[in-house]
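Changelog note: in this version the structure field was regenerated for every chain. One regenerated record is shown below for reference.
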Amino acid sequence: MPDPELPAPEPESARPDPAPGPGVVPAPAPAPGPAPDSGPAPGPGHASDAPGSSPGVDSATPALAGSTIAVSGATGFLASYLLLHLLPQGTRVVALVRKPPHRAMASLALALRSAGAPAETVQRVTRQVRAVQITLDRPRLGLSEGEFQALADGVDAVLHCAALTKLHGDAWELHRTNVEGTRQILALAAAGRRAPHMFHVSTAFVAGARLDGVVPERQLEADGFLTPYEESKHRAERLVHDWARTQGRSATVFRPSVLLSDRAALPRAPQHTYAVLAAKLALFLRHGPRAVIDASSAPLDATGRLTIRLLGAPDASINLLQVDDAACAMLRFAEQVTTTNTSDVPPGARVHHIVHPAETPVTRVNEALQRSIPWLRLALVPDRPHPSGLERAVDLYGAEATAYLGLRRRYERTSLCELERRRLIRPPARVDHPYLDAALTPPTMAR
């Protein structure tokens, strides 16, 4: 969950600019029925034969070929993997962006290259993508009435990925981007003459303060929240459910867990949450144990390691999912929507958890972090009297991880299990030590 404190740029999916003027970079319409990129295709519904390898063309989305999809947050981490599969199928994309269009197009090409897209796919950006500069939380997305209506009338689906993802960010900023931004995207879907299907990217963390048990795939009632971020995403998802009911429309809600990749991101490309965490930790501790000890008065143990106590449950777990598996699953669900007669679909929002079948123990994540910084020891403790200044700083600076060290919950996977049963996707590989070591390797600039 990127944070402006990092040297990496804030991704497209973060807050919008205060008041950018509308602008469009036109792209010529692609020729009918473009041929898919060359090269062998992987097995059905999968980006690759091994997690983390370069994804190939997903032949599972022919129903989206020739469609036009408006995508918010198009240059973000998840969206880049979705477009990696959509563009070779001939899907046209209207990228709703906060940057000037020419900069957004360059960022999109960079994000695709960082996700492992072959040159043929990156070249499709100029032919199949046009960028429209918007202000996410303003009426009509900051566009004129004519521009807004033309945008709404020109798309077959709306995929809302944009969000401000700073866990402990300012509550008003989170509300403005995540809640009011969703309200304006819903208005776009409502205005389109083609009645575009609404795909909303929520988060598994709308489950909030539910620490144990199984989180169901349905609309959730508020039961307290661990961070302002997840409260804002819960409110945004509730808007989608209410919109679908009142408009008599169907919508799809995706609730991904923590998405990650073992690919090293290119400089200035979007990064996954744990890569950001590793970069923060590397920067925070870059001067070595002696400098940290001098600043915190914390002693080394007998093995020469510095112990940082983290408040959490020793048996805590977190759901981590490879981003390429998440993208393939989401596109399979999208395929089902686009191949179903709309008259057969009852109004309302259908929820799909995009999660791994097995929770990852937090201790496994900590072990990977410790392997990257050998003199560091992370200890999960249920109580921490007299926290050191260093421990308090880590709580604040590493909120992406420390906010969720008490979870022991699991997530219903009925939707994904059905896709797996039909062999439309295969279960994701285990998030093991080698994968975590690669995923948590700090970017070069942070070492």
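Spot check on this record: The chain has 15 helices and 16 strands. The chain has a mean pLDDT of 83.
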